[in-house]
Amino acid sequence: MSTRHDDTPLRTLLAEQTLRQAEQGDLPTLATLDANGFLLGADEDAHTFAQRLRTLLRNTDEVEDALAAKGEYAFEELRLQRDDRIAPSRFEAIAPRTQALYRFAIRWVPGFYLDPSCSFLFGGAAIYQYPDFFTLFIIRRSFRHRDRWLIYSRDELLAHELCHVAHLALESRRFEETLAYQTSASAFRRAAGGTFYRPTDSFAFLGVALLLLLAQVVRTFALAWLPLWPFWLLLVAVFAGFALRQTHACRQLRRAQSQLARRFGDDARPVLFRCTDAEIAELSALPSDGSALDAWLAARTALRWQVIRTRFDGATATH
Fold first, then answer.
1. Contact criterion met (CB below 8 Å) for 194 and 164
2. Which of 121, 148, 177, 187 has the highest count of CB atoms within 10 angstroms of its CB?
3. Are strands 134-139 and 111-113 parallel, antiparallel or unpaired?
């Protein structure tokens, strides 16, 4: 049986009274939870949301129990060590970054320094199960004592992964990585970071690159007449396809944010972060003069949009 951990940040945030108020659809309570990274799912109602958070509590208590009793917790092939916990001060250091970008700050998710197997280029990853909302994240051990490793910045990486944690209930696919990469100090990574947003994208590009390498080997040792230009052309075509797709996605995000700015002003980007992929695509396709925006927003009646309006809509907004 799990032991209560009343002194943990998560237990403090998700006290039973808070969960009861959330279950009743109390908008100020839901807005406070939203500000702490507990975003509602696309069409999630108050009861389902509260039950999801209760499940999160149980799962996190299981982790805390194992760490307290045995010093480690086994999750799939990972072995999380109590001594590898990321210090609370690191969360405090990056809270201003996610707060400024998307108006949330997460201090409650378990984080660990860990190098998975085959982790040479690994920087970090958010690990979660939906709809259970079991959540944790890991970053490579190198960051325990240094701020940078290769192209990675520790704080940028932590902020990036916390964006995934906050966004998980929306089950975003198309725009998820690009939104998370906005935590980067690099303009290039902010624009191009979401290019390979599915595992199959990376495999496709690497596969074509390896095919070119194989063709060069075959030409060198067996078929000197074999032309290489078709393989180069295929590589360029695949890369160009991904680049064009990412350019289109960035254009959609800019157009959608521009639409939302008509109503939400400086909070357009946090509202965009709380939109589904389909909503972002719809917003980007609205007339540029804003004539259809009010009608579009009026049709958004889900509890998620009630919370968005509570936090970000004009004089009644609470940040």
1. no
2. 177
3. parallel
Tokens matching residue 33: 């939870």
Q: Which residue has the tokens 């259809």?
A: 292
DSSP state, 2?
A: P
Q: What's the Rg (C-alpha) of the chain?
A: 22
Q: Is residue 136 a contact partner of residue 112, using CB atoms and an 8 Å limit?
A: yes
* Residues 169, 158, 44: CA angle, nearest 5 degrees: 10
How many CA atoms lie within 13 Å of 166's alpha carbon, on the beta-carbon side?
A: 28
Question: Peptide bond before 131: cis, by omega within 30 degrees of 0?
Answer: yes
> Which residue has tokens 């590898």?
84
Tell me the DSSP string of 218-282. Answer: HHHHT-TT--SHHHHHHHHHHHHHHHHHHHHHHHHHHHHHHHHHHHHGGGHHHHHHTS-HHHHHH
Residue type, 217: V
- The pLDDT tens digits of the residues spanning 25-42 come to 999 999 999 999 999 999
Q: To which residue do tokens 């209560």 refer?
A: 4
CA dist 166 and 161 (Å) reads: 9
What does DSSP assign to residue 103? S
